[in-house]
Design a protein that fits this description.
669 residues, alpha+beta, D-Maltodextrin-Binding Protein, domain 2, 5 domains, five-stranded mixed β-sheet, elongated, PAS domain S-box-containing protein/diguanylate cyclase (GGDEF)-like protein, membrane, transmembrane helix, transmembrane, catalytic activity
Length: 669
Amino acid sequence: MHVLNQDRECLTSVLSPILKTDLSQAMHYLVSLFFFIFFVNVAAADDFDAKVSSQNKVDPVVQLTVKERAWLANHKKIRIAFDGSLPPYSFINDSGQLEGIAIEVMNALSKRLGITFETYPNTSWNKLYEAAAAHKVDVVATMVNRPDRRQLFIFTQPYLIKSLVIMTKRDNTTIKNQSDLVGKTVTMVKGYQFVDRVIKELPSVTPYFVVSMLDGLKAVSTEKADAAITFMATASYLQTKYLLTDLKIAAFYDLNRANESINESIAVRNDWPVLADILRKALVTISEEEMQNIHAKWVPSIKPSIDYELIRKMVAAFVIVLVLLLLWIARVRRQNKKIERSKTEVQTTNKILQALKSDLEHLVVKRTAELHSSEHKFRSLVENLRNEYFFYQRDCKGIFTYISPSITNILGYTVDEFMIHYHEYLTDNPINLKIDEYSQSIHSSPYQLEIYNAQKNIHWLEVTDTPVYDEYNKYIGVDGIVHDITLRKQADDRLIWLSYYDELTGLANRRLFADQLQQIISMAHRTNDSVSLFYMDLDRFKFVNDTMGHAIGDEVLKETARRISSTLRDSDIAARLGGDEFALLLPETDAAGAAPVAEKILKKLREPYIFDELEFTLGGSIGIAVYPQNTSSGETLVHFADTAMYHAKQGKHGVSFYSESMQQKKTIG
């Protein structure tokens, strides 16, 4: 930025070598100048980071047992040791004081538990380890949980999740992944267990052992080694503090592999299991947001990747300017290098470049802000919805290359289990038949699948795929988001069921009964059959409901529905129309066939109703209308059956078949 703001004479001096060379050399010089200007602008724009505002929050309460509280009351001071050579987790600063992520986490635990940690003065790993093994130290703040250490210590869950990264010179383009380290010289710090694993996994690597991770980074910077394998947070911290700007993170070696050989837990002396349980509970109360805020204080944020589409647009704009400039240079050479005119053209070009620079700055700043906003929204989505969503990546052949750990929360499978046995978990629902076709093609519309979870329960998943392309616009795979919609599907199915069935008794409701009535009458009309319709009302139900309560009334209705259903054929329809009124449809049944069914139902209803210590009897009144003898209209058939039921109830007949005289009496009454 400073170079571009110098005066015109400075830019003239920069461009003067171009005027003295041929066109190919001039183009090379100008392209180099452009990329210098561009990356300086990107570096300036990258400083546009959002700051997280701190909020005053009440510390969560750690739920302890009586035994645990008594133990803490008797152990107010607990001796703790910190490794002083593990920045930014725990280290000695320039003032000789301990600081880092682990120290802040321990301070938070101390505040939550109301205890005092007394820091062991020696921060040498070997010395503090010996002291802890001899119970001269009660707690070690950071220790990897290894089998050989479990005889001496009790470990909490890991709370410092670390990633191993490969660091190279910024201009190194030969190392892009783990396999590119073959035959290379790689710096490693003696004493770390992951070093043995790296040497075992990559036997052709030439190890360059150093005392500290800072020495390893400096060895790469001075080209004594091709790469360094170190912790990402440590590399970022040291790179920022010691201005190792010529280095970059070339690739991940291990990406946040939880519970493996690089993650740090709290180690407690083996005769204090109660303290280990207390610290485990206290760690759980530190929210992910609080832990992220602690990390953000010590670990510089990773810059977003460059938008190649934006670069292509900027390069295209610059090429246009570059071509115009080269044509101008050729014209100057043909006119015997007229210096005065060259100066005028350089000044004009300077204005063009300044305008272009301003536009580029605006575009980069805007795009950077958009990327930060997108990143924040994505992270919030992952943290807040990890019990509903998981994320995956597939290559162009449909093979999984990544699945987010939240799949364990949703389906109960580990990431490795799901990658290997995915097809075995699918149900035989026909909706699953097109999944392989979707996974091997560019399918952007959401689709659904049905799958078993680890407990063999069925889950419904909604999948949205987004195609991914490389810098040459070639399709290379998909990024996918999977939403567990099981509860939504169950709710939808429940709503559909409730729209056709009575919630209390499980019988058809008035809507479904009306639909079935029309269908059965239409069928009877085609086959020339009879249909009997029963309209039934419980006797003395109001007395039971008023004196014994609505709960008993509901139980009576459910038991009545069960008794009615037990007397009917599979082809018959039973419905609750409301209150204590029921309706029955008996296809292919005339009056002679309906009579014994009605008597059987009444006999069932007269049997005692027994609920807890209550016992009572009820009865019923049934009105029957028959299609087509009484009417050919379904609606009228219901009305006639209701009229017959009214007649049966008034005369205490139990069962009455509809006749025209009933309608006349009801009208007169």
